[in-house]
């Protein structure tokens, strides 16, 4: 579709995408995202719809066989490619993970301001987990 100049925004609106296809003629078609994959709702047109001159026929692809290699491109010069990428990395203190992927700080619990959470945490920190198993063993043998 992109080779046919369709602008594909198949990123979910939940992460800033527009979830749509835009044709060179300016038609905009919504996409559904299901299980992480984009879907275009389609059905065969009725004979009545096909014969109606007021309903546009929207063309999405060429009428020839698809050559899957037409957009292939290998990055041969990694340095040139890396220099072309804008530097939009967050500052080190903003990153949740360090450079090897280890979570740097878990603020989810430490910044939570709820007295019930504090009470529950205190309970489990002070709870004596040692169970008297000596007598339990003797009772079963």
From TrEMBL:
It comes from the Eukaryota. This is Uncharacterized protein.
